[in-house]
Design brief:
heterodimer, A: mainly alpha, three-stranded antiparallel beta sheet, 6 strands, B: two-stranded antiparallel ribbon, two-stranded antiparallel ribbon, 9 helices, about 20% helix, elongated
Chain lengths: ~325, ~300
């Protein structure tokens, strides 16, 4: 990693914790050359073709992701319903054909509250940790979390209302999520209760699907209403400590989205569809620090930007592996 | 947090957002030489944003901490599955995954709802509706628990409440003739108490004939005489007893309860169910009791008092 990317890597970790992305102070000479070239030479024909390509949006990654998400959650449901014992338990903790798999944030809450870790808990947590390091940390959010899917649909409703000028997106301080993470960790240690688990919409939704609905779903509904009428994707963006836990795991993950400066037209459509647009600040004209920039750890690897970009400037990449292929 | 830096993000947002933080079109001017004084409008926007942040903080924390309320009001005590740690530790260590629910052959274990506060998603047993009759033979819920909330052996730093420990491993009558007749259970989850002796059929010297709890009752139990591995609905197994002793007859644990002759305050001889030390608090007696409501009930987390 060159010093420009290393600096950005560190910056992006801070951005995940809530800092706003800054204009880069130094840019690699090769990237500077491209920035300069783009400023002086607008290719109007290419822009026109590009605009046309935008008119036919791709849903390749979104469809794959939704299918995976629904499949994973359905696997929990049918495993219990038909007693086929493939994936027993709920998203907080389960057994995949007998092997313990335990959600990292839930495990953390239990460890902090109970202050005692048994082997099964350790094994399950370790397995999941390795799994999500390989698969990209917050990949969990967009590819598995059932609340993410509901929130995506709620977002569509929100955007419709915005178009009708009935609501506006009220932004909230992103540092709040880090504060919540800390507060809930401290609360678990001090009170000895897994306080966050009682309001975790993931746990509530997962259990509701597997074991039947309950009053707790009202809390999930309240969150969705808040997101539709007040603040777009508020829970995932500003509140969810689970997202931050997986985000930290994603820091060292080899799987990520890669940005290639060369073909980019800097329209920012990718940022419009992104849940966490602060990781895509690099696509703004003049901001890319290198010709190829990996996207930061807060990215959920949902692939909406990949779908929306007709130039192929944003692609999935597995560090090291992509070069071999 | 500077609003300036949010500008590009906002200008790329899909909506025109007239009232939003930042004015689209104005690009960041850089921040050389310290922060320039904020305009009145900017200050107002920053303040509103801070208020919204507080709103979300309040909402989420309010919801989270409201979990304390049911604990403070200490409403109904829940009967926890076998092998459960003491209540406080149980709530701390349960990861709310429901794996214990999935392995129970009679579906005795349910998960609590939001009204239980921090107990949301935590397993409990409603013994009157469906008791744990140990049809699984091996306390499988304990085996399924990934966090040790339900455990065969308590970790050393957790102490056993006096009277909670069983004097000996309970002998499961169903497998009394097996090589290993005991259940791997060291503590009781409650104790059966004759809470309504005036209603008890045995004490009144009455018998019982017909379906216990009526034809619509969903509770199941395994009857060794019918099928060791397949629990059936209680209604499918009608009784005809001259003197009611169902609680004793169906108790799965050896020596936990018996019908004894007792003397009433007026000196009259009566038959009565008497609970003994091996009682683990499984709740079969409460489920099978034919009186409405049950004459014998489990007191959750109760300890044995001599």
């Amino acid at each position: 990693m060159n010093p420009y990317l290393r600096r950005r890597f560190r910056e992006q970790i801070m951005v995940m914790f809530g800092r706003e992305p800054k204009k880069p102070e130094t840019i690699a000479p090769e990237a500077q050359k491209i920035h300069f070239h783009k400023r002086g030479n607008r290719d109007l024909i290419a822009e026109k073709l590009h605009a046309r390509a935008h008119a036919v949006p791709s849903h390749k990654w979104r469809n794959r992701r939704w299918a995976t998400l629904i499949f994973a959650n359905l696997l929990f449901v049918v495993s219990f319903y038909f007693d086929i014992q493939i994936l027993e338990g709920a998203l907080t903790a389960s057994r995949f054909i007998g092997f313990h798999v335990i959600d990292l944030n839930s495990a953390l809450q239990v460890m902090l509250a109970h202050k005692h870790v048994i082997n099964n808990l350790l094994i399950g947590t370790g397995t999941v940790l390795v799994l999500w390091i390989l698969l990209g940390g917050r990949t969990f959010c967009s590819w598995v979390c059932p609340y993410h899917l509901l929130a995506e649909w709620a977002e569509k409703l929100h955007l419709y209302l915005v178009k009708k000028k009935l609501v506006t997106d009220q932004t909230i301080d992103r540092r709040l999520r880090s504060v919540f993470w800390l507060v809930f960790a401290v609360l678990a240690v001090v009170t000895g209760y897994t306080v966050f688990e009682s309001i975790s919409p993931i746990g509530i939704l997962s259990r509701a699907m597997i074991y039947g609905p309950g009053v707790a779903l009202l809390w999930v509904l309240a969150l969705l209403v808040f997101e539709v009428f007040f603040s777009k994707r508020a829970w995932c963006r500003y509140a969810c400590p689970i997202g931050l836990t997986y985000g930290v795991v994603g820091i060292v993950s080899p799987l990520r989205i890669k940005y290639t400066l060369d073909g980019c037209f800097h329209e920012g459509d990718c940022r419009k569809v992104c849940l966490v647009p602060h990781v895509l600040d690099t696509v703004i004209k003049g901001r890319a620090v290198d010709t190829e920039v990996p996207i930061g750890p807060d990215c959920t690897r949902c692939g909406l930007c990949v779908d929306t970009c007709p130039t192929g400037s944003l692609t999935f990449e597995v560090k090291g592996l992509s070069k071999l292929l | 947090m500077s609003d300036e830096e949010r500008l590009p993000e906002d200008s790329a947002a899909p909506e025109p957002a007239p009232k939003k933080v930042g004015t689209p079109g104005v690009l960041p001017s850089g921040r050389a030489g310290g922060t320039p004084p904020l305009s009145k409008e900017r200050r107002q926007q920053a303040r509103r944003r801070a208020l919204r942040t507080l709103l979300l903080t309040g909402g989420v924390m309010g919801a989270a901490l409201s979990g304390f309320l049911p604990l403070l009001y200490a409403q109904k005590k829940r009967l926890r599955p076998p092998g459960a740690l003491d209540e406080k530790d149980f709530l701390a260590s349960c990861i709310k995954c429901g794996q214990c629910v999935q392995v129970c052959p009679v579906s005795a274990i349910k998960l609590a709802d939001l009204v239980d506060g921090f107990g949301v998603g935590v397993p409990y047993i409603d013994a009157r509706e469906q008791a744990c009759d140990f049809s699984c033979d091996a306390v499988q819920c304990i085996l399924a628990c990934p966090t040790g909330s339900l455990t065969y052996h308590k970790p050393d730093f957790l102490k056993v409440r006096p009277g909670a420990a069983l004097a000996a491993k309970p002998i499961l009558l169903a497998k009394e003739k097996d090589a290993e007749p005991t259940l791997n259970l060291n503590e009781r989850i409650g104790v059966a108490r004759l809470t309504r002796p005036e209603a008890c059929l045995a004490i009144q010297g009455k018998g019982f004939k017909g379906q216990v709890r009526g034809p619509d009752f969903k509770g199941r139990m395994r009857y060794m005489a019918v099928d060791r591995w397949k629990p059936i609905r209680i209604g499918e197994h009608p009784y005809d007893v001259a003197e009611c002793d169902l609680c004793v007859r169906e108790c799965p644990i050896k020596g936990a309860i018996s019908i004894e002759t007792v003397f009433a305050p007026d000196g009259a001889k009566r038959k009565s169910p008497v609970v003994h030390e091996p009682c683990v608090g499984c709740g079969v007696c409460e489920m099978i009791c034919p009186t409405e409501s049950a004459s014998i009930e489990i007191v959750p987390r109760e300890v044995w008092k001599t």
